[in-house]
């Protein structure tokens, strides 16, 4: 048999399609989760405690012990009182546990209490004047899906 050769050029395959590009990131801040807390380039400590009435004194003892290890002894009364109020506020949210975080920099201590109680509506700011009255040079609170975060900065 004779091989038949076509009298037209063979059909070329179409060029490959461009791959789908990933979806564009959402640029709106509405509805975004709160940023995870990051403390860098300083000494830190953290404790997780059961959300119970005895948690505040225990957290205060932990904070004072760590501040003493770091060489700070002058602000014991203020540090204990601030830690007590921060933890009591977090415990009042009704979660199963609270966590306390401590960091220092430039002779200041940052003390944070997290309630880990989801579903809180809005940040309760009634505690802020009390924190300032106990010696906090700066303080704040915010609420997200994972609970409330209450913090205070204390001069050491």
Structural description of this entry:
There is one protein chain. The chain is α+β, with helices and mostly antiparallel strands and 156 residues long. Helices cover 24% and strands 26% of the residues. The chain has helices at 55-69, 76-91, 128-133, and strands at residues 44-50, 97-105, 108-114, 136-144, 147-155. Strands 1-2-3-5-4 form a five-stranded antiparallel beta sheet. β4 (136-144) and β5 (147-155) form a beta hairpin. The longest helix has 16 residues, at 76-91. The model has no long low-confidence stretch (mean pLDDT 82).
Task: Name the descriptors.
156 residues; five-stranded antiparallel β-sheet; 5 strands
Give the strand order, joined by hyphens, for the main sheet.
Answer: 1-2-3-5-4
Helical content stands at 10-25%
Radius of gyration: 28 Å
The multimeric state of the shown protein is single chain
Number of strands: 5
Backbone structural class: alpha+beta
Blueprint (SSEs and pairs):
Elements: E1 44-50, H1 55-69, H2 76-91, E2 97-105, E3 108-114, H3 128-133, E4 136-144, E5 147-155
Antiparallel strand pairs: 1-2, 2-3, 3-5, 4-5
Helix pairs in contact: 1-2
């Amino acid at each position: 048999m004779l091989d038949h050769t076509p009298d037209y050029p063979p059909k070329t395959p179409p060029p490959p399609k461009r791959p789908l590009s990933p979806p564009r990131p959402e640029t709106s801040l509405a509805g975004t989760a709160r940023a995870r807390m990051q403390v860098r380039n300083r000494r830190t400590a953290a404790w997780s405690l059961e959300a119970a009435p005895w948690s505040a004194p225990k957290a205060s003892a932990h904070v004072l012990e760590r501040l003493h290890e770091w060489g700070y002894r002058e602000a014991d009364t203020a540090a204990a009182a601030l830690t007590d109020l921060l933890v009591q506020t977090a415990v009042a949210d009704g979660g199963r546990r609270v966590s306390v975080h401590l960091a220092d920099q430039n002779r200041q201590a940052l003390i944070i209490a997290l309630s880990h109680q989801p579903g809180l509506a809005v940040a309760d700011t009634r505690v802020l004047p009390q924190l300032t009255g106990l010696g906090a040079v700066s303080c704040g609170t915010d609420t997200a899906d994972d609970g409330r975060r209450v913090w205070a900065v204390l001069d050491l």
